[in-house]
Amino acid sequence: MKSNSKSDAHKVVIAALLGNLGIAVAKFVAAWLSGSTAILAEGVHSLADTGNQGLLLVGMGLAKQQRPDLYPLGRDKESYFWAFIVALLLFFVGGVFAVYEGLHKLFAPEQTHGSPLIPLGVLAVSLLMESGSFLVAFKEFNKVRGQAGFFKALFSSKDPTIPVVLLEDTAAVAGLVIASLAIGISALTHNPMADAAGSIVIGLLLCAVGLLLARYTRSLLLGEGVTAQVRARTVAVVESTDGVLKVTQFLSMHLGPEAVILALKVRFEPKMALEEVERVIDDIEARVRAAEPEMSKIFVEPDSDYDADRDLALRPAP
Length: 318
Hints:
65% of the residues lie in helices and 10% in strands. It is mostly helical.
């Protein structure tokens, strides 16, 4: 189902960046005071998330810049590229570091010092702040998902910004809960192994989320087409245009969240004059853009003998 609401991705990223920056500082202070590996892993995680949100803002800004001589189809894919970089950083900076620190402490245990109330208090405040950032992202996500299920809408979205922030915040909330449990168990048992194990679990969680995001953004970078629903709506609009008999080829590719290149082969009424064909093509472009505004680049080629049965692009998606 198509939603008419648009999310404010910029607001989501700014909220997440400011929240993670404050949380990262608090976690590093708590890690220094307590010697907890789990909270140190969480500090690195929040620092990585802060940098990631900065990179998302960079991608959003670059995508709006125009260099027709160098990028004749625009720079909309910048948002996809930087989202992919974010996924890699989440894996390597957040996940791998946390696993390394946990393994290091597991094989060379060091007793934590200071009261566990300090890191637990910081984690409690961080959990409240992360939950606030998550709710902002989730609210914006709900604006555009319509009636679609959560996971279907999340990974079918052509705008990676909100899914990236949403998954980062989900991992952050889960990591905070894990870190709290690890620190609490270590304090009760006076055994640093639980703290080390907590760091490893947090690291594995971040690695999993990083791989999931990398797979999702890789697909966007490779050039996903429009969804089956958008394709069906667009074909219906074109074929309802006066002078058009049939769409014989339909090729599409997302250049960015709100920019699609569309190439069509169309069978027109027979024996139409060239001027009439041009008029119908102009009509097709205007009608398609009115129905699907993201169709920013449209190319229509007249066709009379194309074998549509052999065109995989026109077949229903599996």
